[in-house]
Design brief:
152 residues, 4-stranded antiparallel beta sheet
Amino acid sequence: ERMVDVDATPLVVDDVVYVAAHQGRVLALSRLTGATLWRRDLGTSIGMSVDNEKLYIVDDEGLVWALDRRNGATLWKLDKLKYRDLSAPVNYADSIVVADFEGQLHWISKDNGAITARYQVDKAGVRVAPLVRDGILYSRSKSGRLEALRLK
């Protein structure tokens, strides 16, 4: 399958490659054969994250999606952060976390897509996805402020 304008980093889990294109599609491809396992008309240049069951996507409008990894079915969609210039989602415990142009981090429940917490990093905004290492979430704002947060 041919895709153009692939800006989001592909993800590889087991024998499946997940790839997304800006203003295009999200595909699950067999790593072994290259065959398309499923496709969705859903574009992103921002990025994706994945866990054992779900593929999480921030689309080009800022909607946050959870798709079933096996078949691409929508499990939930969050529209409350639309047009907030979100970062790629990252996995953090039972949540995914995204950052926005106002410098806020948003914790989103993996189960139902509800926003469960917010934290203001810096009013200058955050453009890059947070990073999680050893249970600590790191976020850097546009002004250079670095925050290290641990879930309690």
